[in-house]
Amino acid sequence: MYNYDDLYGIGLSEYCSAHDITLSKLKQKIITDIELLSNRLRILATASFHEQDISLINTVHKLISKKSKHLDRLQNWSDEI
Hints:
- The protein is mainly α.
- The chain has helices at residues 4-8, 12-18, 23-46, 51-80.
- Helix 3 packs antiparallel against helix 4.
- The longest helix is centred in the last third of the chain and has 30 residues, at 51-80.
- The protein is elongated.
């Protein structure tokens, strides 16, 4: 698996600078997104839903997974420094 240095061609400090955010704030933003999406997923999963909602449930689940992987990569990237 490639690390962010490989993918973006810049270091973690430049990545954060490009987003005009500190590493801790970036991580907190992702954690908050995961919490919000998890709450949404719980609501969708417990409510009576229609067939078209299955696509939304799958999309929210995939987004939680993607953001969790992003958070893990950021943590690994910061550990490498």
